Amino acid sequence: MNLIDKFHHWRRKLRWNKQYKSGRWESLQSEKEIGRYHQIVSYIDEFGPKNPSILDIGCGDGVLNLRMDNLDYSYFLGVDFSKVSIEKAKKKNFPKSEFIAADAIHFSPGRSFDAIVFNEAFYYIHDSEKQNVLDRMLEYLNEEGVMIISIYREGTGCWEYFKENPKLRELAFTKVTTDEELRYWKIGVYKKT
Ligand SMILES: C[S@@+](CC[C@H](N)C(=O)[O-])C[C@H]1O[C@@H](n2cnc3c(N)ncnc32)[C@H](O)[C@@H]1O
Questions:
Q1: Which domains does the chain have, with CATH numbers?
Q2: Separation of 9 CA from ligand 1 center, angstroms?
Q3: Which parts of the chain register pLDDT below 70?
Q4: Mutational pocket test of ligand 1: of 5, 56, 120, 185, the residue with most ligand atoms within 8 Å of the beta carbon
Q5: Less packed terminus of the chain by CB within 10 Å, N or C?
């Protein structure tokens, strides 16, 4: 990123903090969003190893974790660059879980994972950094592990990083719809080739 991009990136981080503080993202816990989280959890269950370790990049305040009540997992790490969202997630005291405030652009997990999730987060990563972030996270995905991506609506400029990536094989891809025509998500599951 050049200096101007870095400035905008910093501003965006402040905006996320402000929005989490004001409660704007409480809406992610609504019934309308539930199908998306359940689809991600059921993909982890179906395609991932049993009792998986899970890394959630751009985890917000931990809604995915909240929706995992039927999934046995060994460890959950949520990472988000918004300190406010991470503080909110920590207060929920999820079992076997940790939350870290860190920027995906620089973050390297200290261990590998069975499932790595970008749940409504990949498109927020600056275009010049998307490939770097994806490549770095793939280094921390176990051989039998799965990478799961959820993107609102069409995900223009994002899906090619996964669908046209020679390092990845698509295992499943679906569209999660709601009663609102324009509120839908596409979700893909990938394994390393
Ligand atoms: C729409 S929210 C989704 C939150 C959560 N994944 C969910 O679906 O409940 C997008 C999240 O991505 C985070 N985010 C955006 N850019 C990021 C970056 N470079 N590093 C880490 N987190 C980032 C934001 O702070 C925000 O919490």
A1: 3-192 (3.40.50.150)
A2: 13
A3: none
A4: 120
A5: C
